[in-house]
Design goal:
Length: about 250
């Protein structure tokens, strides 16, 4: 089963830059999207319902902001949107939980925290609630995928020394992600590619993507029951259309 996750930085914008072609070429069984910046009522038919896929949307209350979506070839047994007990997180459409016969899939869009750190407390609250929620899944097959908005280690960003006190690489944020991993979840990409330097997000400024001055902030975490079934974990850097590129895992389920 091939699961792709992608922060599209606007679903309609990504569609104008080849999203549907990317879906056809990669042919995922499940596609998790973050930062869709759209309401279902505003989407054209080709995005509202992609042939061969069931579609589910959790848009933000504010138009043109945040939100998540999932397209899946496999009909889920249950779909739940607002799993974390925080009204702002719910209003921003940042979580989606799909239950399938043999595993559960959690699609998340973690708050950025803002450059001036004015929303860092909110971000850390998201992580605390996430940790509380996934505790009940430590003995169950769960995949958590999405934009985590934090680089885990020095290898995961081009300029770690210059960013140690900056948003997305502060000790507090890294500790928050570590808290999820310590519950028994595994970073599938790093598990299979111990020393590979590959990024999933690049700032728009200064030709950062062309110069590969990036960050790996998009992950697919698997509970310990699924790690041995992950056949592939990769970052699709050749796919454009957003400031992020997609991540992919292939799981034998």
């Amino acid at each position: 089963m091939k699961i792709i996750s992608w922060n599209v930085n606007g679903l309609r914008a990504a569609a104008r830059h080849g999203l549907l072609d990317a879906i056809r070429s990669t042919d995922p069984d499940i596609l998790c999207l973050q930062e869709i910046k759209a309401q279902p009522d505003d989407l054209p038919p080709e995005l509202l319902a992609i042939s061969g896929y069931e579609s589910y949307f959790n848009p933000a209350q504010i138009k043109g902001y945040a939100g998540t979506a999932i397209y899946t070839k496999i009909k889920p047994l249950a779909v739940e949107f607002d799993i974390l007990s925080n009204q702002q997180i719910k209003d921003e459409g940042r979580t989606m939980l799909l239950e399938f016969e043999h595993f559960s899939l959690l699609n998340i869009y973690v708050p950025h925290g803002s450059r001036d750190k004015s929303k860092l407390i909110y971000k850390l609250r998201f992580y605390a609630l996430l940790q509380e929620f996934v505790t009940s899944y430590t003995n169950k097959p769960l995949i958590i995928t999405g934009d985590f908005n934090v680089a885990q280690a020095d290898i995961d960003l081009a300029r770690p020394k210059q960013n140690r006190s900056n948003t997305m690489f502060t000790p507090e944020e890294r500790s928050a992600l570590k808290g999820i991993l310590e519950l028994g979840f595994v970073d599938t990409f790093r598990h299979l590619h111990k020393n590979q330097v590959t990024y999933s997000w690049w700032p728009y400024l200064a030709n950062a993507r062309e110069r590969n001055i990036g960050w790996r902030i998009d992950y697919a975490l698997a509970s310990r029951h699924l790690v041995g079934k992950v056949k592939e974990a990769s970052i699709l850097t050749d796919i454009y259309g957003s400031d992020h590129c997609p991540t992919l895992i292939d799981v034998k389920i």
